[in-house]
What we know:
With 271 residues, this protein is of the alpha/beta class. It contains 10 helices and 10 strands. The relative contact order is 0.13.
Amino acid sequence: MPLSENEISDLFILLNDHYGYDFSGYAIASLQRRIKRFTSMNKINGFPELKKRLDDDPVFFSSFVHELTVNVTEMFRDPTFFQCLQQKVFPSLSTYPFRKIWHAGCSTGEEVYSMAMLLNEHRLYDRTRIYATDINSDVIQKSKEGIYPLRFMQEYSTNYILAGGASSLSDYYTARYDSAIINNHLKKNIIFSFHNLVTDVSFNEFNLIVCRNVLIYFSPALQEKVIELFYNSLGMLGYLALGSKESMLASKLKNKFEVVDKKEKIFKKIV
C-alpha cells in the first residue's frame, strides 16, 4: 500500500505528535517498504483505515512504530567486522585507563553483548562503559533483559568462533527452558537508554562509536547531520564504525577521518 506525499506528511505529523519521533529525513523508499509490510500483515485497506487505527489504538500504534524502527541484528553479525575491531581498534583502546563506547541504534542488544564479550576476553571490559541507545523503547527493554531464543545460539556460536572468540559462547549465558539469558557480569557496564539520532544531541565524549546499518535508512542530508553528531561525540583519535553498505565518501567531514579499514568501514577522527 504505497502512500502519497501528503499521506506520508500526515503520518510524520502523527508520529511526531504521539512519540516525538521525527521521521522527516528518513529514506522514503525504506519507509514505504516497511509500511507496506505492516499494512499487509494487518490487513489494512488504505491510508484512512491506517490513520484511524493509529489514532484509536495505542497498542497498534506501538507495533507500527516497532515495525518502522527495528533493524535486523544478531550476535557477532558480520564476524570479520569483530575480527577487525580486535586487531585494529582494541590495541588503541587498551592504552586508555577508562574507555567509553557508544552503540547507536542498538536494536535488541545482540551486537552490544557481542562487543562486551570480546572486551572481556581482551581484559578491557571492567574499565569500559558502553552506552547503548535506540529510538525504540520496546527494544531497549528487551536489550536490558538480555534474553534470547535458545534456538539461535548455535548460529551465534558459529559467528562467535568466526569472529575470533577465545572461549565458548555458552560461557556468557544461562540456558533456561527455551531461552538464553545473558550473564549479569556482561550487563554491569552497559547503560541502555533512549536516544533519537535525528533530534537529540551529543551526550558524552567517546573512544569508539558503533552505528552499523542505521544510516542506510536516512536521506543524504540526515546522514550528514548524524555523522556530524558522531564527529562531535568522538574524542581525538576516536573510532567510528559504520555498516558495510555505508560510507563517509559523500560527507563534508570525510577529511577529518582516517580510514582504518575500508572493507569494514572503520574510521578514526584525526582533526
